[in-house]
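New to this. Please check this fold:
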Amino acid sequence: MAKLYFHYSTMNAGKSTLLLQASYNYRERGMETLLLTAALDDRAGEGTIASRIGICETARTFTPQTDLFALIAEEAAVAACIFLDEAQFLTEAQVWQLARVADDLGQPVMCYGLRVDFRGQLFPGSAALLALADDLREVRTICHCGKKATMVIRHDDQGRVILEGAQVQIGGNETYISLCRRHWRAAMQHS
């Protein structure tokens, strides 16, 4: 039975690395995979899933308007598994479409993404995946204190913590720092 999986974490936990490794494992055994990523995140180039350790693969892109069920159904005959990066940018409707891929097409769907934004709020795609996924897997990274990082702060180019702003701002280490909840609260000036 195919399942919908959600691998979630904060920034810099290695989600894209895990996705690329899992896809490679399928291909090494002669099975094709379909890689998808959000068109919004083009830091490594449009339609590229890239890891901080230097590995990357070309992927099909999706926008909030993309019918993922229809897109995947076109590839259903050749793809043994669907891998989707930047899952936080999915809409709720798209998460339901991915659930249909697992349920109706019988293909496993592996989603990788952030759980919360810099304000500690769930992304809409992540909230829907937490509600609908058959299997939830936390990818762990650590805070500077050595505890598990579950939160992220956004900072400006002078290192000042940004407290407000749009939920989505594409960036990496130059923009975000992963922290444990205690250090996130201190950085956000909460008690």
